[in-house]
């Protein structure tokens, strides 16, 4: 079993960039594949999850190539996808599987979407049910788990109230709507990541968004586009958290997405006292720019259910920050974390306890009274990239050595993570310019 060892870091002053946003990278590939013409993508994330989407599209006849710093997608249009000759392996990527469910629901061929052991234990009914209401023919395994079998169908439009704020569900239904006979109107909990609402118009789709409603009219085509994928704020969050906990810490992250629907973690950090400045430098069509953080002693906070959609990936980091903050930090409404790559709430509790932390665990969150000392421990991330990286950051403020088991799981979203961490520990990063 492979192990990464992390020791305490007493000085954090770094200027860095982070790889391309994972959510945008998936969508850029899919929308490019469905477009007419060649789409050029700068900054596409090179990770296992995005590779799953790339390979699935390739199996359906889409030509995708790296050319220097760009990825070029030869679009096949809405009528050009080819029937795959074997199941489409989504690996560990729930995003790949859920978005492709929408894309494949209205095709004239059958397909099967499968995944690894972890993905095969993640429920898909939330996406399958409204797609079925549109006329899709979808079969799930027992307990609504993958593999997902999709048969040919003619889709109808739908007027659907989203029961929860889910960007993947929203995007899957809009993708299906590209092949539907009538309009797709989404209402209810639409306030999740809005990358699809920004990107579809960039590809020439007339998408109307106003007053809590998203409307996609039928019979629209996509036109090839050029776009730059900004750095992933969920990846930047690890370095923001590290700098926020280490006395005198400073960090400057450039080229990162400053999409307001992705800055929930930044807002929580600011509530806890961290001094953070944002500077937008471009729109590509996503706003991107620079985040600068200066450390101050952290104060406890409460994170409410309505905030979770904008920081769902960063909840493990909030737990780590809570151990160093003064007072009681409580997170509720995060039950979705129990069906991620792991049961993240249980994984958090197990590994925090191993590091000497006392906490209350709820079905939908946790509470931690801080500050508490952390002690180096053997960390089992349960093959979950975000748990592995969060506890590596915890190791930077722990007494003694922290061992992260199976660290290769970070390849799902941030393959370079431990390389960057080593550079930080060895003092090889450029200091902040502010």
From TrEMBL:
Amino acids binding phosphoenolpyruvate: 22, 94, 122, 168, 344, 386
Protein localization: Cytoplasm
Active site: 313
A GO molecular-function annotation: 3-phosphoshikimate 1-carboxyvinyltransferase activity
Principal subcellular localisation of the protein: cytoplasm
EC numbers on record: 2.5.1.19
InterPro entries attached to this UniProt entry: Enolpyruvate_Tfrase_dom (IPR001986), Enolpyruvate_Tfrase_sf (IPR036968), EPSP_synthase (IPR006264), EPSP_synthase_CS (IPR023193), RNA3'P_cycl/enolpyr_Trfase_a/b (IPR013792)
Residue span, Enolpyruvate transferase domain: 12-421
Residue sites binding 3-phosphoshikimate per the record: 22-23, 27, 166, 168, 313, 340
Claim: Transferase is one of the keywords in the record: yes
One Gene Ontology cellular component annotation held by this UniProt entry: cytoplasm
Catalytic activity: 3-phosphoshikimate + phosphoenolpyruvate = 5-O-(1-carboxyvinyl)-3-phosphoshikimate + phosphate
Chain segments annotated as transmembrane: none
Keyword hit for Transcription: no
Pathway connected to this protein: Metabolic intermediate biosynthesis; chorismate biosynthesis; chorismate from D-erythrose 4-phosphate and phosphoenolpyruvate: step 6/7
GO biological process, alphabetically ordered: amino acid biosynthetic process; aromatic amino acid family biosynthetic process; chorismate biosynthetic process
Keywords: Amino-acid biosynthesis, Aromatic amino acid biosynthesis, Cytoplasm, Transferase
Pfam families: EPSP_synthase (PF00275)
Family from the record: Belongs to the EPSP synthase family.
Protein purpose: Catalyzes the transfer of the enolpyruvyl moiety of phosphoenolpyruvate (PEP) to the 5-hydroxyl of shikimate-3-phosphate (S3P) to produce enolpyruvyl shikimate-3-phosphate and inorganic phosphate.
HAMAP family assigned to the protein according to its UniProt record, in alphabetical order: EPSP_synth
Subunit and interaction comment: Monomer.
Protein name, per record: 3-phosphoshikimate 1-carboxyvinyltransferase
Source organism (scientific name): bacterium (Candidatus Blackallbacteria) CG17_big_fil_post_rev_8_21_14_2_50_48_46
Gene, per the UniProt record: aroA
